[in-house]
Design a protein that fits this description.
Elements: E1 2-4, E2 7-9, H1 15-26, H2 30-42, E3 49-54, H3 58-69, E4 73-78, H4 86-94, E5 98-100, H5 107-118, E6 124-127, H6 131-141, H7 148-155, E7 167-170, H8 173-184, E8 192-194, H9 199-202, H10 205-222, E9 230-234, H11 238-249, E10 253-257, H12 261-269, E11 273-274, H13 277-283, E12 286-289, H14 299-302, E13 310-313, H15 323-329, E14 330-337, E15 340-345, E16 350-354, H16 360-363, H17 370-389, E17 398-399, H18 403-416, H19 426-433
Parallel strand pairs: 2-5, 3-4, 3-6, 4-5, 6-7, 7-8, 8-17, 9-10, 9-12, 10-11, 12-13, 13-16
Antiparallel strand pairs: 1-2, 14-15, 15-16
Helix pairs in contact: 1-3, 1-4, 2-3, 2-17, 3-17, 5-7, 10-11, 17-18
Length: 439
């Protein structure tokens, strides 16, 4: 372990491998690379301090290297204790980026690392899950919280000057939910762009990226055959719908559990079996949570599950599967493999938990494919630029990604795929903009 003021990583000797992995990702992220070329020429982020709390993967490396090419000083910490790719962290340190992340962090180390990333005095925050942004707000509002002692250890005596923060961005659904709650309570202190809610992200990153990478992770961790199995997906939002589609594509019988009647109806109309959670618990073979809520799978479900049931979580935090209930029901816990734990219950059944209940696609696999993250991280880079260009002019609220940024990223991606699309004729443009024209 190497722990210094400007870094906290597993092993600097891993940097060569990390550089190779980053190069692989960047070759598959053509939109972000075009943005990087412009950033290198124009330097729109010259001297701007950016604190980022993200999954430290090869794709994230492509983003923070792009911000650095735009002139930013970047400090990066992990948004999940188990998702860091240590070789990537080592490579980024070689690129003069402050990195405070290693795989397997304790809760104490995780929050100290957030403090270290904030110690640069950020002007922009980039977040995935809002842990960093919420930490800033807890400190500023003086809200007591046990993890803040660890944060302050990383911060030192400097503290965080919220007045100096021009704005931030948020990558994921869970984070946006937390930030909108801050806004509703009147406690949000600076504008944040909800990158997660952009059509270019929500239509592709969430269902396609998470759908593929979640199934990939479950198969890597277990090697099971999905064909013929009953896969229960909790939540039929952007993420859950993608997981359901890809599980069905592997030959599974997919069962959807929902609390929202519109989403439940959508799942039913798409041909999935929809039922309540207890009914699903009795018949499922593989259970995947994707709700962003707490204790979705709990004692009452675990008590009726089949012997051999597999439990995985695709939500941001490790709260969707009640680990307390699982431990309370069990008389023996065995680590079957790196990402699989067997819990033997008092009545002799075995339940298998993947990735300690954390985000399975990033713990047991490598997260989204680079081609999908090309879209999300291009939106992030351009949103950071937008915050900097509009410093002091953005209302303090959770903002949508500007429509022109969405269109730019989507159009550039199409062109890199060799796809040209039509434009409306002048007549068509007039027709869709004139209320007087009808049948």
């Amino acid at each position: 372990m190497e722990k210094r003021m400007d870094r906290w990583i597993r092993d600097p000797a891993l940097s060569s491998e990390g550089s190779r992995r980053i190069a692989w990702a960047e070759a598959r992220m053509p939109v972000l690379m075009r943005i990087r070329e412009r950033f290198r020429r124009e330097r729109p982020l010259e001297g701007v301090r950016v604190s980022a709390c993200l999954h430290v993967t090869k794709e994230t490396a492509a983003l923070v290297r792009t911000l650095r090419e735009g002139g930013a000083e970047v400090a990066l910490c992990a948004s999940n204790p188990l998702s860091t790719q240590d070789e990537v962290a080592a490579a980024l340190v070689e690129d003069d980026i402050r990195v405070y992340a290693f795989r397997g962090m304790s809760e104490e180390e995780y929050y100290e690392a957030i403090g270290r990333a904030l110690a640069i005095g950020p002007e922009v925050t980039v977040d995935d899950g809002a842990d960093l942004t919420v930490t800033v707000h807890k400190l500023a509002h003086g809200i007591p919280s046990p993890e803040l002692n660890w944060v302050r250890r990383g911060l030192g005596a400097e503290g965080v000057e919220v007045e100096g923060i021009a704005g931030g961005t948020e990558e994921t659904t869970t984070g946006v939910i937390r930030l909108k709650a801050l806004e509703r309570e009147g406690r949000l202190l600076y504008p944040v762009i909800a990158v997660n809610d952009s059509p270019t992200k929500s239509l592709f990153d969430n269902p396609i990226g998470t759908g593929q990478s979640t199934i990939d992770a479950i198969l890597r961790a277990t090697g099971i055959l999905l064909a013929g199995k009953r896969v229960v997906v909790f939540g039929y939002g952007r993420v859950g719908s993608g997981i359901a589609a890809r599980a069905r594509g592997m030959g599974a019988e997919v069962i959807v559990v929902e609390v929202d009647p519109v989403r439940a109806l959508n799942a039913a109309m798409n041909g999935y079996r929809v039922c309540n959670s207890l009914e699903a618990a009795r018949v499922g073979d593989v259970f995947i949570t994707a709700t962003g809520n707490i204790n979705v799978i709990r004692r009452e479900h675990m008590e009726v599950m089949k012997d051999g049931a597999v439990l995985a979580n695709a939500g941001h935090y490790d709260v969707e599967i009640s680990l307390k209930d699982l431990r309370d029901l069990s008389v023996e816990v065995e680590e079957v493999s790196q990402h699989v734990k067997r819990y033997r219950t008092r009545d002799g059944r075995n339940l298998y938990l993947l990735a300690e209940g954390r985000l399975v696609n990033l713990v047991a696999a490598e997260g989204h494919p680079s081609e999908v993250m090309d879209l999300s991280f291009s939106l992030q880079a351009l949103s950071v630029e937008h915050v900097v260009k509009n410093r002091g002019r953005l209302e303090v609220k959770v903002h949508d990604v500007p429509a022109e940024i969405d269109r730019e990223v989507a159009m550039t991606k199409l062109r890199t795929m060799g796809i040209e699309i039509d434009r409306m004729t002048e007549e068509q443009a007039r027709y869709v903009s004139d209320w007087r024209l009808g049948t």
